[in-house]
Amino acid sequence: MLMIMLLVHADEGEELRLTDEDWRDHFWLHTRADDRIEHIRVQVTGSGVKAVFFSASVDRGSSAATVEAICVRALEAMPGSATWEVSYHPTTPGEPPLGDLKSDQ
After folding, report:
1. In a domain, 105, yes or no
2. Which domain of life is it from (predicted)?
3. Backbone angles phi, psi at 73, to 5 degrees
4. How high is the pLDDT of residue 104?
5. How confident is the model at residue 101, as a pLDDT?
6. Which domain holds residue 46?
7. Alpha-carbon gap, residue 55 to 66, rounded angstroms
């Protein structure tokens, strides 16, 4: 299983109103069965969202592309997010991703 981390940054001074659970549910809503995502963990931090996607794929490149596509779909469905920045970060299997994040389990 691979882990792909992403950070979503809202515009400066804009505080995100959704909870960790709301964001997780929003990402799941825009995830397709063929995306092969097993778990999503999310933490809202003021004007940003940290999310870790756990992919059943063994190919890091395709997993990263899949997570990017999920994020694009999720943000396109969210009013006011057109200027938000998204960054993707590789994670090392076995290391805790982003500290204590809430899981969908």
Report:
1. no
2. Bacteria
3. -60, -45
4. 47
5. 43
6. 2-90
7. 9
* CB atoms near residue 50 (< 10 Å): 20
- Token output for 1: 């299983």
Structure tokens that stand for 84 in this block: 């938000």
For the chain, the three-class secondary structure string (H helix, E strand, C coil) is CEEEEEEEECCCCCCCCCCHHHHHHHHHHCCCHHHCEEEEEEEEECCEEEEEEEECCCCHHHHHHHHHHHHHHHHHCCCCCCCCEEEEEECCCCCCCCCCCECCC
d(CA 66, CA 72): 10
CB atoms within 10 A of CB 47: 15
CATH number of the domain that 29 lies in? 3.30.70.1430
Burial 59-83 (b: 16+ CB within 10 A, else e): eeeebbebbeebbebbbeeeeebee
